[in-house]
Amino acid sequence: MPTSWALAAGVGTVLLAVLASVLLGVQHLAPPAVLHALLGDGSDPQTAAIVAARVDRTVIGLVVGAAVALSGVVLQGLTRNPIAEPGILGLNSGAALAVVLGIRFLGLGTVGGYVVAAIVGTVVVALLVQSLTALAPRAAAPVSMALAGAAVMALAQSLIGAVLVTDRASFDSFRFWQVGSVAGRDAGQVLEILPVLLLGAVLALSSGPTLDAVALGDDLARGLGQRVLLHRGLAAAGAVLLAAGATALAGPIAFIGLVVPHVARALVGVGHRRLLLLSALLGPAFVVLADVVGRLVAPPSEVQVGIVCAVLGAPMLVLVVRRVRGV
């Protein structure tokens, strides 16, 4: 598909997702009532509150989706591993563990504080997973990295559970955040971590040439004039900042960074400049639509967006792993 058409389709998908997110929910609202609430022209207070909550979760879903999708593209490019993704590699769980520990023992209570803790947790887990992968045979690196990430993720989740069980207040406050959710958040929280997300996005979006060169191998990349270590470090920093910011904002949401890059790659090919741009559009649409599905699938209750993304993303992981084994 031509890049311009793919980008136009991505923009259209985002707009449809936003429209569905504002109009649909457990509480049925007629479109005119939603429009009046958005315009603020004296609509019913309850309707206005419902619409405001939908707008907040839509904004957060857009931000989180873009951040995790871009992080997934960069991680897959840097590792040359088709199943690399913040959730599968345990980065989200490491960030969540660091946030929970910060809340329990350091008294963190702001999104800005969560980001600092999440960055530390993400970096530690990334180094640990990379070290474990290095111990495995090189031919088995893709699956070994996924297994190392799964092991670290299981350990982090166990530690999170242990901390929350011993602290009832923390458990009550973060049981929904722990599985990944855009509900109950204030869109104003995005402003607290906007510098981190913007820096991560700039580093990720500018890493296209580096990722294209790395795909050819480090030796050839050096021959093309790339300062491989520096550019790899900058791209990795962008992926870490995006994953940490998204986790601090909405909790650990997995599989977005796996599914979106593969869908985008099927549409525009392997060039990372185009891949990054399209993923930055498809990621938000995926998260927002998953949130809408979670609202509608089991009324009057809601299914958290992290659970919906896992249900939709797990089959993609199986397909990608089978393809890697076939190659």
TrEMBL record:
Its main location: membrane. It comes from the Bacteria. The chain crosses the membrane at residues 58-75, 87-107, 113-136, 143-165, 234-263, 275-297, 303-321. SUPFAM superfamilies: ABC transporter involved in vitamin B12 uptake, BtuC. One of its GO terms (molecular function) is transmembrane transporter activity. CDD domains: TM_ABC_iron-siderophores_like. Gene3D superfamilies: ABC transporter involved in vitamin B12 uptake, BtuC. GO terms for cellular component: plasma membrane. It is found in: Cell membrane. The keyword RNA-binding does not apply. Belongs to the binding-protein-dependent transport system permease family. FecCD subfamily. This is Iron ABC transporter permease. It comes from Phycicoccus endophyticus. The lineage of its organism: Bacteria, Bacillati, Actinomycetota, Actinomycetes, Micrococcales.
